[in-house]
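Retro notes (design track)

What went well: tokenization of the new backbones is finally stable.
What didn't: we kept losing track of which sequence belonged to which structure.
Fix going forward: every design gets posted as structure first, then sequence, in one message. First example under the new rule, 201 residues:
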């Protein structure tokens, strides 16, 4: 079976949000994490969500159609989420689409575009989303042959070391605007983003 799973990384601690949880920030009245899960589910791909062990509010947003993955050592960094997420995927997954959950500009159409490109390329490269100007971002699709290597990652750099090591196998996919790179980590980031949304017709 050739299945690409979407792995939403939602186990971070929001340490730069001054006590607020960025994944609970409202997008048109709906918490960001719920919005991102809905967009992922709209692809019809199986969706898995990594979560910290001590955040029931996030866990309550997962719903019945996505699969939660509790990351017991989430505070050790993003690599912990990747290790736990990859380890929990079914054996029939041919690849995983890695999506940090704090990227509200990413749309279901972006996920679908990434999946379409991956499924059409018989070489099964690593796919990495970019901005229109070529700046690297997310989502990233990692084929199954890299899963074992992902399970050895450590620290808070996510899959960056793996992507550097295998840069010759990366195919880039430009997404609209800066969708691939807009992540919101601070209250100031959120204020600026909301202001931009209000100003956009």
């Amino acid at each position: 079976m050739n299945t690409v799973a979407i792995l939403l990384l939602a186990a971070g601690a929001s340490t730069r949000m001054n006590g607020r949880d960025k994944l609970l920030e409202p997008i048109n009245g709906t918490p960001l994490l719920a919005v991102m899960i809905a967009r992922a589910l709209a692809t019809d791909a199986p969706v898995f969500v990594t979560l910290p062990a001590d955040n029931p509010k996030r866990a309550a947003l997962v719903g019945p159609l996505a699969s939660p993955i509790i990351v017991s050592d989430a505070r050790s960094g993003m690599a912990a989420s990747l290790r736990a997420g990859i380890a929990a995927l079914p054996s029939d997954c041919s690849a995983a689409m890695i999506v940090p959950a704090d990227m509200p500009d990413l749309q279901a159409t972006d996920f679908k575009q990434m999946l379409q490109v991956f499924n059409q390329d018989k070489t099964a490269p690593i796919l990495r989303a970019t901005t229109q100007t070529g700046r690297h971002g997310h989502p990233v699709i990692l084929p199954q042959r890299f899963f074992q290597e992902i399970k050895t990652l450590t620290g808070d750099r996510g899959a960056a070391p793996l992507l550097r090591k295998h840069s010759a196998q990366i195919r880039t996919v430009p997404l609209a605007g800066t969708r691939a790179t807009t992540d919101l980590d601070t209250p100031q980031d959120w204020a600026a983003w909301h202001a931009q949304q209000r100003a956009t017709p």
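Added context from the reviewer: The longest helix spans residues 108-120.
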